[in-house]
Each structure stands twice: as structure tokens, then as C-alpha cells.
Q: What sequence folds into this?
């Protein structure tokens, strides 16, 4: 049969002839029930006679009224979407010409303009001469199955895309630890292709010394042991590149079950670059700390020199000027001269006091001459006079122990105490301060400065302009010590600095 005969107008009928007669027959009712349950319809077509018959359920599947006007072959193309009709037409022509059969998955259009999917099957039946007399077939609505299948394929494609595009290396193995899936990130990490990974054993990409960790703990205890591996046992873990080179790695492993089968999933991250960055950052911090320590050392040297110069070159002449002025005031017979000499002596006295204060701020000479305890006592008394805050100064340990402290340790602790008192004066609104230095141990020195003020908040310590605390911390860390700024018992703030002595450092 050619295309022209296939397109010939036909007369459509409901399945089997008269609908009323068929409805009364038990086999027809049974057939309708089966078709309805299977979402199936049947059809018959006599091309030469131009007769087309549909079962009752086929009308319903297409959203048509079985009692309405029948749809003839010449209008059948309106029931299909896209290339479905050309494919069906081609299959019909081939079946008629070759007296064959066909099965197609087609997209169809319901009467409400919604679309669906169906499997349409057809079989040509020959006459006595071997030519096609009629075609019979079925129309099975698979829309729901197709929707689920499309959703599943879409989900699988999405998951595959996520798997392929993940930044971390992802590897999936079966229970024998044979790699069944790997993403491009895993291939880049091991410096090979995905094809070179798939089919190999997971252990072949791990150094032999780590095999026991995976075999005994990973496989025996499952997800719980994997979590602990990531938390605590992962340090020092390495993997292998394709050329055998080891590299540091962080691995997270888990189990999953697919269709009743167990698989292991490994997410790996190459730590080579992060560790290099961390080492470079640590080296930079160490260099910066050394630079700060050197700067502070130079600064202290200059402070000491300037303080000595002020003491020797300025304070002594001022003292001599004062004595001479007072001597002139006593010996002169001129009242005006005596008054001026007395005023000059008073001015010299003020200059001496100011110079002494400046020298003490720069570097108290008593720190070099009598030691840390005496310097702290002098500073505490000066602070109390200046601020009106009551200061209790206490030294624990053998008498004279502070005099034996290394100069850098004594200077560090003195500067921490000095900065702490300055902060108390500026911010704390305190009434009492306790300054304590503990020299009772041979391996370290402890300094604490506590107040009963309003206290300090954690966010204040993290402020970008908290240079005072940062400077104290750098001084202490430069000597291998530690600084703590915490809430004091009963309110206020406590600054604690612990510095190891030479024999206990490093």
C-alpha cells in the first residue's frame, strides 16, 4: 500500500460495530475492564474498506467522548505531537506493504490539549492472497511511567553533573574496594585520567603503611570509624599520584546502599597547596615576630640611651642650677634678686621632676640598677599618685630573685605592666589594682595585673585598633611566652603574662 492509500479518508467506528450491542456482551465488558486497568485501548483498521474501529477505552484515554463524533484516519494526525505522526505514518505504510508489525513510543495530544506518552503497537493481517487486509493493535498510555522515567533521568543527569563538577575529588568503590566511579577532580588530584582510576583498587592509590587504617577500621566499623578518622587520625595521611609521588590528603569516607548493594564513597582534598600556604604564612608570621622583637630591642636600647642622657646631661645640671639659685637667694641683699633666684630654683625643681618622669616613662633606671620588683613598685606608686587608684604591689619568690632575671624578660614584663596600667587608667574606671609578679619557680615568671573596673569584652580584644594588647602579646610571644586577658574574679579584667626562663625555652 502506498502513501496515498494510507492517507485515504476512512470511516471511524466504535470497537466491534454497534456500541449498544457490544456493551451487552460479557466479553466486551471484561475487555473494557482489563483495558481500563492497564490504561490500554485497542484499534482495528481496514485500509481498503476505509474502516477504523476504536475500543471504548481508547476514546477515554484520548479524552474523547465515546458517544461523540468518531475520529477518522484523515484526522488522526491531530492526535499526535512533534514527529510522532510522521513516524507512525511511516510504520503503517511499511506494515501494509510488508504485512509486518511495529511498536512505537509516541507523544499524543488529549482533547484538553495536555500531552501524554503511549506505546502504540500494530500487526498487519493478510487475506487469502497474502496481501494486507487489516491492521490491529493496541494503544497503551505510559504517561505516568514516562514522567517518572524522565524525572529519574533528569535527577540522574543532575547528580552526574554535580558529581562531575565537584571541586573535591570523589571516588566510589564496591565492597572489594574496586573503584567503580571517579570524577575529574579525583583524576586531577592523582594526576591521571578517570579511565585510569576506574577499575583499580582504592588501596593502590594509598601508601602501604596506611592500608591497615583503612582495612581494619574503615571496613570493620563503617561510618563511625570514618568520622573519627577525619577528626583525629587524618593528620599525616597521604595518597599517591600516578607517578608514585606522595601528597598530603584529607579524606572523608561514608557508606551508601544502592539497589541493595553496598558501596563506599571517598571525598578527598589535596592539602599540598593549603599546607604550603600555611607554612609560608607561618614563616611570614615568624619573620614578622622576629622583626617586631628586633624593633622592640632597638627601641629599648634607644630608650635606655635617651634616659641615661637625660639623667646625666640634664638632671644633674638642673640640680646644680637649683642649688646655685637657692644659694644666691640666701646670700644676696637685693630683695628682687632673691625673689628671682627663688623662682629660678622652683622652675629648676619642676624641670627636674618632669625630667625624672620622662626618664621613668622611657625606661626606669631602677630596672637596670635594682631589678624588676623595685621598678614595678616605683611605677605602681607613680600610677597611684597620678590616677588616684589604689595599687597593691606584691612580689613572690626569694628576695633578690628579680635581679637575676635576664634583661629581655625583665623589660618585657615591665612593659606589659606599664601598658596594663595605662589601659586601666584610660578605660577601666577602676578603684583598686593588684599587681603581682611570681618569681617562685625556676622555669618561668608570671606577671598578673588585675583591676575591679568595668571589665573588657571579647570583641574589644579583636578590634583592629587594639594595638596595646597586640603589642603586649607580641612582646610575650617573642620570648616564647603566653598572654591572657580574661575577666577577673569579682569583676574587672586580669592580664596574665607567663614568660619561660632561658633554660625552659624552645
A:
Amino acid at each position: 500500500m502506498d502513501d496515498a492509500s494510507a492517507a485515504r479518508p476512512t470511516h471511524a467506528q466504535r470497537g466491534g460495530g454497534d456500541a449498544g450491542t457490544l456493551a451487552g456482551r460479557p466479553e466486551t465488558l471484561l475487555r473494557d475492564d482489563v483495558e481500563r486497568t492497564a490504561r490500554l485501548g485497542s484499534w482495528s483498521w481496514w485500509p481498503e474498506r476505509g474502516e477504523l474501529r476504536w475500543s471504548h477505552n481508547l476514546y477515554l484515554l484520548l479524552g474523547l467522548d465515546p458517544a461523540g463524533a468518531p475520529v477518522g484516519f484523515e484526522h488522526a494526525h491531530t492526535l499526535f505531537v512533534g514527529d510522532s505522526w510522521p513516524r507512525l505514518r511511516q510504520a503503517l505504510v511499511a506494515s501494509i506493504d510488508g504485512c509486518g508489525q511495529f511498536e512505537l513510543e509516541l507523544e499524543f495530544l488529549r482533547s484538553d490539549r495536555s500531552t501524554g506518552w503511549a506505546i502504540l503497537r500494530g500487526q498487519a493481517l493478510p487475506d487469502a492472497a497474502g496481501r494486507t487486509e487489516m491492521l490491529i493493535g493496541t494503544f497503551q498510555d505510559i504517561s505516568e511511567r514516562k514522567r517518572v522515567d524522565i524525572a529519574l533521568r533528569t535527577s540522574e543527569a543532575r547528580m552526574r553533573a554535580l558529581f562531575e563538577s565537584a571541586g573535591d575529588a570523589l571516588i566510589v568503590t564496591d565492597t572489594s574496594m574496586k573503584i567503580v566511579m571517579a570524577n575529574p577532580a579525583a583524576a586531577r588530584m592523582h594526576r591521571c585520567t578517570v579511565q585510569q582510576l576506574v577499575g583499580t583498587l582504592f588501596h593502590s592509590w594509598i601508601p602501604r603503611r596506611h592500608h591497615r587504617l583503612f582495612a581494619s577500621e574503615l571496613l570493620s566499623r563503617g561510618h563511625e570509624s570514618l568520622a573519627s578518622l577525619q577528626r583525629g587520625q587524618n593528620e599525616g595521611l597521604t595518597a599517591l599520584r600516578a607517578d608514585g609521588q606522595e601528597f598530603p590528603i584529607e579524606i572523608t569516607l561514608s557508606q551508601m546502599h544502592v539497589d541493595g548493594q553496598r558501596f563506599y564513597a571517598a571525598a578527598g582534598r589535596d592539602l599540598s597547596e593549603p599546607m604550603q600556604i600555611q607554612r609560608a604564612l607561618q614563616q611570614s608570621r615568624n619573620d614578622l615576630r622576629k622583626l617586631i622583637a628586633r624593633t622592640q630591642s632597638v627601641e629599648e636600647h634607644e630608650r635606655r640611651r635617651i634616659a641615661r642622657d637625660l639623667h646625666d646631661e640634664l638632671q644633674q645640671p638642673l640640680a646644680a642650677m637649683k642649688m646655685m639659685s637657692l644659694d644666691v637667694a640666701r646670700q644676696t641683699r637685693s630683695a628682687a634678686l632673691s625673689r628671682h633666684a627663688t623662682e629660678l630654683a622652683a622652675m629648676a625643681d619642676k624641670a627636674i621632676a618632669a625630667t625624672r618622669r620622662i626618664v621613668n616613662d622611657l625606661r626606669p633606671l631602677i630596672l637596670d640598677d635594682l631589678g624588676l620588683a623595685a621598678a614595678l613598685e616605683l611605677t605602681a606608686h607613680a600610677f597611684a599618685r597620678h590616677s588616684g587608684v589604689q595599687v597593691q604591689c606584691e612580689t613572690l619568690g626569694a628576695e633578690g630573685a628579680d635581679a637575676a632575671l635576664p634583661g629581655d624578660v625583665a623589660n618585657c614584663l615591665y612593659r606589659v605592666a606599664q601598658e596594663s596600667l595605662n589601659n586601666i587608667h584610660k578605660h577601666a574606671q577602676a578603684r583598686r589594682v593588684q599587681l603581682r609578679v611570681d618569681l617562685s619557680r625556676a622555669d618561668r615568671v608570671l606577671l598578673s595585673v588585675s583591676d575591679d573596673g568595668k571589665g573588657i569584652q571579647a570583641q574589644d580584644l579583636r578590634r583592629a585598633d587594639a594595638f596595646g594588647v597586640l603589642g603586649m602579646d607580641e612582646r610575650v610571644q617573642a620570648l616564647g611566652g603566653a598572654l591572657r586577658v580574661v575577666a577577673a574574679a569579682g569583676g574587672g579584667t586580669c592580664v596574665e603574662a607567663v614568660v619561660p626562663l632561658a633554660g625552659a625555652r624552645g
About this structure: Residues 1-11, 16-24, 221-233 have pLDDT under 50 and may be disordered.
